[in-house]
């Protein structure tokens, strides 16, 4: 089983870089749906991802319909949106029956409304106070969701305990 973070037409290189770093640290695959609002050579994106780019599996898709065609089971697609009625903690991600995909919209406009109307049962949301903010930061949202998924999966292949040298801590 593999987890996938999918970004629809991301605009901000720092967000994408931070998400790539999270993907590297969680063994999560990253998908970028074009057009991108930056060059993948952008210095801000590289700085945000630091030296982790070679540790992330990145797949590029020309558009949203092309990405959807690559998903073996549409029921494993979760669309993260503040307009969803179901919390991101509600689905059971521990079932080991294939890959899970978490689709995040563009920072400024989210996902296209016709697409959202086509898959309403796939939508999940992170609770927030909508009276104070429009949306949570994209890279924070991706981290919140992927760590809930990994928690339910008992953090597969992730180191959970470090042995510390007490002399170094003094």
From TrEMBL:
S-adenosyl-L-methionine binds at residues 80, 105, 126. SUPFAM superfamilies: alpha/beta knot. One of its GO terms (biological process) is wobble position ribose methylation. One of its GO terms (cellular component) is cytoplasm. Keywords: Cytoplasm, Methyltransferase, S-adenosyl-L-methionine, Transferase, tRNA processing. Residues 4-147 form the tRNA/rRNA methyltransferase SpoU type domain. InterPro entries: Alpha/beta_knot_MTases, SpoU_MeTrfase, TrmL, tRNA_m1G_MTases_N. Its EC number is 2.1.1.207. The keyword Magnesium does not apply. It is an enzyme of class 2 (transferase). CDD domains: SpoU-like_TrmL (cd18094). This is Putative tRNA (cytidine(34)-2'-O)-methyltransferase. The lineage of its organism: Bacteria, Bacillati, Bacillota, Bacilli, Lactobacillales.
């Amino acid at each position: 089983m593999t987890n996938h973070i999918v970004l629809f037409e991301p605009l901000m290189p720092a967000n994408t870089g931070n998400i790539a770093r999270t993907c590297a640290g969680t063994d999560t695959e990253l998908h970028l749906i074009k057009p991108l609002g930056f060059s993948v050579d952008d210095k801000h994106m590289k700085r945000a991802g630091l030296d982790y780019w070679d540790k992330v599996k990145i797949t590029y898709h020309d558009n949203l319909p092309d990405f959807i065609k690559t998903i073996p089971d549409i029921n494993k697609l979760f669309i993260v949106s503040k307009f969803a009625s179901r919390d991101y903690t509600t689905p059971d991600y521990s079932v080991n029956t294939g890959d899970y995909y978490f689709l995040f919209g563009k920072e400024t406009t989210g996902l296209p409304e016709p697409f959202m109307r086509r898959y309403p049962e796939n939508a999940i949301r992170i609770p927030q106070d909508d009276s104070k903010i429009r949306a949570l930061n994209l890279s924070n949202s991706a981290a919140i969701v992927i760590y809930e998924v990994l928690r339910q999966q008992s953090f597969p292949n992730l180191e959970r305990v470090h042995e510390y040298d007490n002399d170094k801590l003094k």
